[in-house]
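1st attempt posting a full record on here, be nice pls
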Amino acid sequence: MKGLLSFGFPFFLKVIIPGVVGAFTLSPLTAALGIKLGIDVGFLEKSLPKMGLFFTGSALSIGFILYFLEEIIYRIFEGYILWPKRLREYSTNRLNKKIKDKMEKAEKETTDKIERQNLWDWLLDFPLKKDREKPETEAVLPTRMGNILWSYEDYPESRYGMEPTFYWSRLWLALDSETRREVSAAWAEADCLTCISFVLVCSSILHILACIFDFWNIPTFIFGPTGKPVDSLTINNIALAPSFFLTMGIISLIFSWFSYSISLSFHRKNGDYFQSLFDLHRDKLEKMQVTITRKLLDDGWPETALYLRYGQKKCNKCSRYFPSYKEKCPKCENP
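the predicted structure (as tokens):
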């Protein structure tokens, strides 16, 4: 909570800006809903202080909700949740086809150095293949963002044998406060753009649904129990008609895509930070590794993580994993 309530630059980027965007795009729907429920929303036109207070409260509420949903938002954008299996497989295969085409173009068809470099930069957004004779990449998730994050999160394990989900939190706590502050500020930029993209997608869906419900005369809170449109309702001289909601939905979707696309470059930069922290600071964890591996009579980061997380160790003779409290391997009786 200290990072959230420090009210510094990351707080401004991760809470305030996405909250303001959400409050602005959702305010027409909020106003229409209030009118249909019989709530007096005249202060949105007549009282500037009350309007400012309402907008501020809405922005902070949305911003905090986005903050606490950040992990879920990333899981959605990466392709882990809310993706039907067929859609996930189709999107992943489509990316792999693009990778194959760009790889062939970079190796055989392109002679221009700048174009060739741009192709390789695009290809390196994806994880390297496990079995490869040259720098070949592949898509393992259905989105660009998911593959970028997978690519750099795989770096500690593929290079050093350090499982990132286990060692990252320990490495982070071992860093000095200045380094943590600098990295947090850099990562907040990507978080800001990702949350803005998410809130704009949600806004687009809600606006388009409102328009569709009215078109099919489906009763809603906004259009009334009989599906009667709200053409006669206005707020700040803006007619809250179905065409307005459709326009807002399309505009929100377009800007959501722009925000998502721009965020990818920030995620690439975050990946460089993440990899560099393991390259430069993993020695801060060696004391923990030495202490554990002395007990295990073995060495290596994988064995350390296995012992600390699961309480198991690896037999030197048969390579079987067994509980660390046992003195001998239950399979081969190796001491």
